[in-house]
């Protein structure tokens, strides 16, 4: 029998998992008033203390009907205490109507002076946010009347709500401003020393006050005058459409509840111009930075397509008609070429996402930047800091000549956004390295699209897409292309175009040996397209190969594609050997057929191999792995006899086994 201590510990652990924090307390079995619950619950002592010290809040909770949004003590540990906390925080966590979670609308009015709103975001019945804070669902909806019989409700939340505050000793008070009044009175507000005068001046000059005064709930991204190490934008470039791109109408987007990369239409989304915005974050070490991106998918002569990213320098400022985020620079304005984008935006900031990329460019001579400048239309796939910090690639980075050659693998001599790749069904494009292509795959999940690519044997994912420059597009990726970091088996498992071969290799146990770093593998891997082609040409053979009882046959066929030797064979190696043989056949000592011969053809479309009098296109050549090399081909090397003969043998074996088993059962039964 379990002890009560063990049971109690298990319950606490379960509650921690349910609540999503280290807070482990319960309101079950509690019959106290709300104020007494705050007083007697140790994990709510901080919010109780500030309510008790504030006469208005203390009186309100004792005398009136209220809803209290109570941050637990852990939430208070995450904020920096300010002298004005006792003045602002207590009343901003209280509203004078008792409401359970299901009764909450889009906003409620707080008891702070001016009754500024608290904004509600409901992602599901059990996932509800109050401004930036998440309601701890298992510690919500606690109801009790106070001593005067007034109904009250308590919801525990995981963050402290932060209202808009005045500067200390401000000569003027501003109560519950809308976004326009916020900008107009910014000099009196506590905005961490940020100023918004330039943007305010442009809004005034272009008579756009009304879009910041609209009633309802909206999101406003307001550029500050200047942030260190960010390029300053000429004010005259902030036109009417640019201003509209800083507003997301009818959506109140606090950072916490908003899905990363989900796109929202801005006020600049019209018939002739289409501009979205999305939020993202970057975590490096113990630092988390948030960004907003404007993505112009349909531009005009003044506003080119592509994304412009700004850092959110002060987030989640609630105002009467929504939420304000202060950002490092105006959105939508493209005024740097690709070289300037890298230099001006990132080179002096050690925490910038392309800092390591810039370092490697300069370490390899710096001429790569000049090459980017000379290209009128270029797409750059730029590896992030995390990509260059991968420990497995560090030895390669010491070879400056090698790294310089790899940099060219990251550029394409045309402008390619994700929309271009989707609209034109582009699955392959030539890089600046001869015979080295990039291969694309776009994965769609709901409203989100993710671009993955393969180059030089490395799979990468675009983590920040469509960054706009005057002469091209930048996509930030999570791996350095061309530096192998996966064994052959891991490459098969992670490449989305090789799923069928990987599956057969797993069920037949062929893949078990492909992780051996002491061996060198050359593998002609049929891509999924090749297997679909087999399903059409020979559906019976295809069906059998994917049956578990035919896994031994599948293995034999895959072994025909595999060479295990003391070295790997690139397509150029095989081509040279063919040339030495007067363009006759090349011997391939595969695991299945030690006397297998193929011919090699080299053309502008790439390499092809001839097997059994049929030319087969090599879709991707020289995909390098840490223990081998893969050549992706467009046809499975299979004869009809492979499945028919072996299938007959397999069927006879099974039949024989059944007969033996039947004889045994008869013998056992009658004896």
From TrEMBL:
FAS1 domain residues: 31-161, 183-331, 338-481, 485-637
Signal peptide: 1-24
One GO molecular-function entry: cell adhesion molecule binding
Entries under InterPro entries matching the protein: Adhesion/Biosynth-related, FAS1_dom_sf, FAS1_domain
Keywords of the record: Signal
Pfam families, sorted: Fasciclin
Biological processes, Gene Ontology terms: cell adhesion; extracellular matrix organization
An annotated GO cellular component: extracellular matrix
Keyword Transcription regulation set for record: no
Listed Gene3D superfamilies: FAS1 domain
Name the UniProt record assigns to this protein: FAS1 domain-containing protein
